[in-house]
Amino acid sequence: MRIKASYSNTPSWRSAYTQVNLPKELLPLEKMARNLWWVWNNDATDLFAEFDPELWRKSEHNPVILLQKISYERIDEILKDSILMDKVKKVIKNFESYIAEKFDKAKPSVAYFSMEYGFSHVLKIYSGGLGVLAGDYLKEASDSHVDLTGVGFLYRYGYFTQSISPDGQQVANYEPQNFGELPLDPVLNEDGNQMILAVPYPDRDIYANVWRVNVGRISLYLLDTDLDLNSEYDRPITHQLYGGDWENRLKQEYLLGIGGILLLNKLGIKKEIYHCNEGHAALINVQRLLDLIEGEGLTFNQALEVVRASGLYTVHTPVPAGHDYFDEGLLGKYLGSYPARLGISWQDFVDMGREHPGSGEKFSMSVFALNTCLEANGVSYLHGIVSRHMFQPVWPGYFPEELHVGHVTNGVHMPTWTAKEMKELYERTFDKNFYNDQSNHEIWDNIYSVPDAEIWKLRLAMKKRLVSYVQEQMKEGWIKNQKAPSAIFNIVDKINPDALLVGFGRRFATYKRAHLLFTDLDRLSKLVNNEKYPIQFLYTGKAHPADGAGQGLIKQIVEISRRPEFFGKIIFLENYDMRLAKRLISGVDIWLNTPTRPLEASGTSGEKAEMNGVLNFSVLDGWWYEGYRKDAGWCLTEKRTYTNQAYQDELDASEIYAMFENEILPLYYARNSKGYSPEWIQYIKNSIANIAPEYTTKRMIDDYIKNFYKPEEGRSKLVTANNYSKAKELAAWKEDTAANWDKFTVEQLTFNGQDLRDGAGLSSPNLTEGEKMKVEVVLDKKEMKGDLGVECVLTEYDAEKKVDKFISAQEFRLVKQEGSKLYFEMNAEAKIPGLCNFAYRVFPKHPDMAHRMDFAYVRWI
Ligand SMILES: *Cc1c(COP(=O)(O)O)cnc(C)c1O
What we know:
InterPro entries: Agluc_phsphrylas, Glyco_trans_35, Glycogen/Maltodextrin_Phosph, Glycogen_phosphorylase_DUF3417. This is Alpha-glucan family phosphorylase. This protein is an alpha/beta fold. The structure holds pyridoxal-5'-phosphate. Pyridoxal-5'-phosphate (PLP) binds at residues 128-129, 132, 506, 576-578, 581, 603-606, 608.
């Protein structure tokens, strides 16, 4: 027999969790390590660090690993150290009493769905702003006693870690996460094995492990498909965040939506509100409809009333290209069997994801979300406006200004993003109840009572912490990547905490315009080499691995930073994650943001800076459009001067240089005899007092409760009460109205007696101000059972934007009803000077209609 050089089959790996054998005095720490409460409680992280500073550093500040690896000798020492043990007891007591607090029954309960969550750098299930927002929101729900349950994915590879090659190329490293070392728990069945969810996909079930992340009092359930029960083809569904092709994306969204609801069903969790963080989760509504149709015997239209009533869709994208669209064929492959079960046709189903039903458009998750959620919102005031314009084609009978789409401006979780030094200052200076009353300006006003010197000292301490963090991290990272030691020590030792430090950290998407500062390199060189005014720029950010332009931008900045005139003045920091973000947004003096307006939906990193007395210098876009206050930061004007983007960039860049040269640097260096600039401190105080209180997640969740959750809770009760009788009534009314919509006739439409039917214009269109007008309309609704309304819509032509702009809609009075005939009247006065256009619009009317977009049938007459 021929002997092979080697011969082996593949190993069968089994996993086992080994429980840490902590002594009983320390045992509660095991539970505490597996609750992300420590992320926003410095006493807890300080305690872990004190247990074993070296191990804490090596574990990258992960307490689960720390407790798994801490030595028995060290545990013995800890037990004998009475001062340390007092701290242990205090932290455990704080944790346990926090956890024991109950949800506030007055606040609606919420199921929250998101593709990503950013809680801590330790748990790599986020890529950027969207995830960090979701993570912050869950922390706030916990602090605010909101009964919220989250659903998401546990990614094997998460998002990539970034390193930069010697020639400035971004290298994306995907490192598998070891789930046993993460702060989460497997959800167990009664038999003690991990719960597995079976999700029906066409021709097969796909299985997912069920995990739970404890976020204070909140549970977040995560699904992961990387298990042997699945085929090689299905296991990677949850490998990467925003990785893979469109088919994998659809499989993910199917899992999040349909699987997400099946999971909650399996866990016996029912909530009052179903909140989609972005359109990715919109398929929850397919399963919710199905549950009502198959479980409660409702028809599709009745079920839709119920599902919509409790659905909220938050959009984070300002441009149509940012949404997910799926080919009809691909959609059919996965969802083809659903319409029949829902009792509708395939055509009806795809049309629910189209701006123009009946067209060949791809299926848009966002449009599907809009059609299956009664309410929707953007994430800043400006983004609300942008979203109403973006979504207007879904409701062609209405103008953007009339849409129900609202906004809640994003915020940040204050206790997470405020540096320890600053939190201690707030705790010393502010009311004891401060954390529970974060939106109270009166409390924040106390910042004015803090001596300037103390604020300056704190700011310096935070800057120094950033510098030492960067030096440590960069040295470690560079050594790992085998870079030349001379380069390392030269650059990192150049960061100067006494200089004005400017930070820029975000995803390298082109609209964020990271290149703006580098538009005029001669001028930039003069700026950074002025010995009178030392200034340094710290850049960081990842580009999506498929985004060539974004990666090109990183390369360009890295190359510039290596030129002699910029060496040590412009510094690019690798691997922007939450840990670096926290140091950076608290350790620089200025946070710079230069997006192309209006493409920054909200942005939150600048809000984090606010919590730390770091001043913002940003384009008036996203949250800063609302947040900017004079003498509390700086802005680039919101006006767009050029349509040509390159010209606009040039203009904006020269404005940035000028602001640094003429305003910011002179202000920062107007030092008094004590070594600081009192005016600068005044800016810091103004910004903390007037801006910070508005941009916390506390304010954000309160806005969601008041403007969306509460009204929807009421609506949901209305339509579900008495065995869904109102839902049935509304569905029947809509069905009847829709069936008879094209049949009603306009018997009369007269303007001061003149017949305006069939598009006729006014015979004498010149009115004098104050002139009286009487308009009479008679409709014959024929067989239609429900009511109709008529209104006059006024618009004026906006020559600059070349569109008709909505001015107002005024409803007619119903003066008489005879059989199927409705008599309407309106008396008005010519009031608006200049040319304006008007038209008459008929719409369905019902006292329980939530808003016009609830049933957006319109006929212009
Ligand atoms: C806060 C944060 C973001 C979002 O910041 P933007 O201002 O929206 O760019 C992105 N990434 C990380 C790591 C963050 O901490």
